[in-house]
Specification:
The protein is about 30% helix and about 25% strand. It has about 150 residues and is α/β, with parallel strands linked by helices.
């Protein structure tokens, strides 16, 4: 018998990224399709706002945000927290990246990071190119230098 986590497969490099529309802070709603042909997209899934590891990860992205922008890449932090939670989290730590509020777990399940019996996302980062194809996947705490190196290959 497989565990619920194993039953939900992560999309792989070379596959089309699953489409989504999701509530976000600060913009309202964001769709992956909005960036097709325009920007590379990083989806950085994390478990929960205002926890030590997640704060470290999101603050590190903010520190390197101008490097991502220079690489024609938009970064989204994604958790199952609410827009209101994201608003407080972003304000408290002066976060620059957009935060997607996947409180229905729909996006996380499409990307295989929220198992059916769970309510929080696993820490996984996806790099999606301008054509909507996944080019890099990293499970665990991401290294921004490595992500930027992967973006430079596009």
């Amino acid at each position: 018998m497989t565990s619920p986590r194993e039953a939900v497969a992560l999309p792989r490099v070379g596959e089309k990224a699953p489409e989504f529309t999701c509530e976000a802070y600060p913009e309202g709603k964001i769709s992956l399709a909005d960036y097709r042909g325009k920007k590379n997209v990083v989806l950085a899934f994390y478990p929960k706002d205002n926890t030590p590891g997640c704060t470290k990860e999101m603050c590190a992205i903010t520190e390197d945000y101008s490097k991502f922008e220079s690489a024609d890449t938009v970064v989204f932090g994604v958790s199952t927290d609410s827009v209101k939670s994201h608003e407080g989290f972003a304000a408290k730590f002066n976060l620059k990246q957009h935060l997607l509020a996947d409180h229905t777990h729909e996006v996380g399940r499409k990307y295989g990071v929220v198992a059916e019996d769970k309510t929080t996302a696993n820490r996984v980062l996806f790099l999606i190119d301008k054509n909507g194809v996944i080019q890099f996947v990293h499970e665990g705490m991401p290294d921004n230098a490595k992500v930027l190196e992967e973006i430079a290959k596009l």
